[in-house]
Amino acid sequence: MASKINCGTNCFAGFIRAYSLLVGLLVMVIGFIHLDNVLVEFCDGRVQNCVGPSLVWANSDNPVADVNGPFAGGFTLGQPRWRNVFTLRPDVFLDVWSPLMFGIIMVLCHFANFKVNFIAGSWARMAFFYLFGSLFAIFGYAGNLGIITGFLCVIYVWFALVISIINAVTGAEEMTDPTFSLKITKPGFITSNSKGESGDSQC
Fold first, then answer.
1. Which of 27, 121, 150, 167 could anchor a disulfide with 134, C-beta 3.0 to 4.6 Å?
2. Helical (H) or strand (E) element with 183
3. Rounded CA gap, 42 and 81, in Å?
4. Over the stretch 91-112, which tens digit does the pLDDT of each residue have?
């Protein structure tokens, strides 16, 4: 009977870990789709000298003109430029790169080499991180896919909170770690350590 109970709790926790990893991969896809949406062809080769579809080559009259800046060439009329995407301005940077960054973090949390306890130290912390991500980096991006993935994150939040409560009541060791804690030991070799121990690289 005990083995059946252990198998049940361990399998349930393993399923939710796999679910969270798949959701993280889906969020990464949303990040790439969003980048594709904002990376339009900034340069019109019919009226400008272009370096690829997104960079404007300044003319000989002023070769150091800020032709790829956010206000170049009539930005007030809504014409985007290179630095409307690749910029460190906080308001633009966060809006453009949030989905991809959240997706990468969601996936890397499952590797002990990159695991950060502040985010993935418990089921409750992971639940909060996924809830925060769904509200600020998923729902409003990539159209319908962002809405679907946002609700998948909310479903994970409920699962994670349920496991957190079960773990607090039963103290089941195999349900302690919300991630797979995969270890990359050598190129091409990955081992799992998801039975309660924390990863090697933690903050």
1. 150
2. strand 183-186
3. 6
4. 889 999 999 999 999 999 999 8
DSSP 3-state helix, strand, coil percentages of the chain (rounded to 5)? 55, 5, 35
- Quick: pLDDT tens for 8-25: 667 888 999 999 999 999
Give the integer Cα–Cα distance in Å for 124 and 104. Answer: 20
Which of these, 192, 127, 194, lies nearest to 164 by C-alpha position? Answer: 127
Contact (Cβ atoms closer than 8 angstroms) between residue 80 and residue 42 = yes
CA distances from 182 to 10, 47, 106 (A): 16, 52, 13
Name the residue with tokens 């409307």: 84
CA 110/CA 54 separation, integer angstroms? 35
Both structure tokens of 142: 């990539």
Q: What is the per-residue pLDDT for 72?
A: 59
Q: Return the amino acid letter for 137.
A: A
| 126 vs 185 pLDDT, higher one | 126
Please compute, for residue 150, the number of CA atoms within 13 A of its CA located in the half-sphere on the CB side: 17
Q: How far apart are CA 142 and CA 29, in angstroms?
A: 9
CB 47 within 8 A of CB 57: no
User: For residues 150 and 139, what is the distance between their CA atoms, to the nearest angstrom?
Assistant: 5
